[in-house]
Amino acid sequence: MAERQSSASYDSRGETTSHSKGSREFVSHTEYAVEESVPHPNRWARYREYLREPFAEFLGVMVLIIFGNGVDCQVVLGGNPKVNPSEKGVGSILFCWLSYLSINVGWAVGTAMGVWVSGGISGGHINPAIYIFAQLLGGIVGAAIIYANYFHALDLVEGPGVRTLATASLFSTYAASYMTNVSAFFSEFLEGAILMVVVLAINDKKNMPPPAGLGVGTSLGMETGYAMNPARDLGPRILTAMVGYGKQVFTFRKWVAIYDFYVMTLTLVYSQYWLWCPVIAPIMGAQFGSLVYDVLLYTGEDSPVNRPYAFMLRVSHFITDHA
């Protein structure tokens, strides 16, 4: 009886099993060890478990940039007679007429693909809110892939080894010449705000999600180039600075002339357009869009706006604590 009790053991499910021979006991423990190690079969799998969300955001932004920069290069370089001699006359006019819509559709598809790649793991932010470094790195790698793919076409358009802002705009954003920095900032702020309102509306369980559309892309962004997403602009901008475009991608509109009507003088002011307009403005716009949606439409209990008598509760607690 004692012998039978000593040979009894518990399996991985907590059930009693009897092992009369050492070999069976060894097999049982081996199977248990293998079963235990399934979630992390090796060291890389263990590290990956903690990095899946940043990896997902990296791939999501990389896919976004590959589609977006890819369609920019394909439309602009493909429509250049130096690259494609057949694109001239009536055909080139039709190509230009369709290029604006093609770019919007390409970026929309890139956004959808990026969200599908990362959405199930990290939520598909693909916009620097949480995983900033991973998204920035994804933007750099995505732009590098497209740059390598269109390297020879760029040489045909600008000359071997010549890189100017004319083609740098295929990778990152640059405002139109008639735009002031204030106007460019407001344009990106507005795009970021509207984009955030739409994103919140789609994810609001108490709202009916609208059909997927191209509203923001087809109505805004022509003047500044659709930054809307700091990772979409800053990552490719860093890449272009590394591959031969130089510091001009960061010194665009470095000095801004401001005229003082009172003293009748013209002053040059140091400006960081690349930071304020395509990076900070979309972030501030997104925060403003969140506030607008929160105040006007959102009814969830997790919103500070919807907490019952929040201000009065704080006042009553303050009075109670100091009575």
From TrEMBL:
Any GO MF annotation of the entry: water channel activity
Main location: membrane
Transmembrane segments: 55-77, 97-117, 129-150, 182-202, 256-276
Keywords, sorted A to Z: Membrane, Repeat, Transmembrane, Transmembrane helix, Transport
Region (Disordered): 1-26
Biased composition (Polar residues): 1-11
GO CC annotation, single: plasma membrane
InterPro entries membership: Aquaporin-like (IPR023271), MIP (IPR000425), MIP/Aquaporin (IPR050363)
Compositionally skewed regions (Basic and acidic residues) per UniProt: 12-26
Any Pfam family the entry gives: MIP
Keyword Cell cycle appears in the UniProt entry: no
Reaction catalysed by this enzyme: H2O(in) = H2O(out)
Topology of the protein relative to the lipid bilayer: Multi-pass membrane protein
Annotated organism of origin: Gymnopilus dilepis
Protein name in the entry: Aquaporin
Family according to the record: Belongs to the MIP/aquaporin (TC 1.A.8) family.
